[in-house]
Amino acid sequence: MKLSRKGQYSVKAMLDLSLQPGYGPASVRAIAQRQDLPAPYLEKLLIQLRRANLVISVRGSQGGYRLAKPPQAISLGSILEAVGESIEMLSDFDRHAAEDWVTALVWERLNRKVRDFVFTLTLEDLYFDARSRQASQGDQTTFII
């Protein structure tokens, strides 16, 4: 499974929102600056995430977007699905063109396992994995996703 830019940007934005004090709102511009993402495209992704009930838009001068649920309740799979990403390792795998039924069965089961895993991996898990990786590389001064 390879994430497109759309998937990468969506996950980065959601991780950024999970780092906000009290999970308060952050503006599109602020997220885009922190994560080095194009703001207009990020806005479109956040609208898709809002429609999937993963973020809430907050109006006003201190508004922006905030998580609709705690980070431990938002899975990587739900983020990717919200923006139309494929969750299968081989989304274009033709089960009927497989050399034999064993090969088709193996790939179908593998895709199922990957899908199950992606829906159990949460924003909280991703945050701790990123922090662990950063600490192992000796970089403790900044945290950019």
Automatic annotation (TrEMBL):
Pfam families xrefs: Rrf2 (PF02082)
Leader sequence residues: none
Segments crossing the lipid bilayer: none
Family annotation (InterPro entries): Tscrpt_reg_Rrf2 (IPR000944), WH-like_DNA-bd_sf (IPR036388), WH_DNA-bd_sf (IPR036390)
PROSITE patterns, sorted: HTH_RRF2_2
UniProt-recorded name of the protein: RrF2 family transcriptional regulator
Source organism (scientific name): Lyngbya confervoides BDU141951
Phylogenetic lineage: Bacteria, Bacillati, Cyanobacteriota, Cyanophyceae, Oscillatoriophycideae
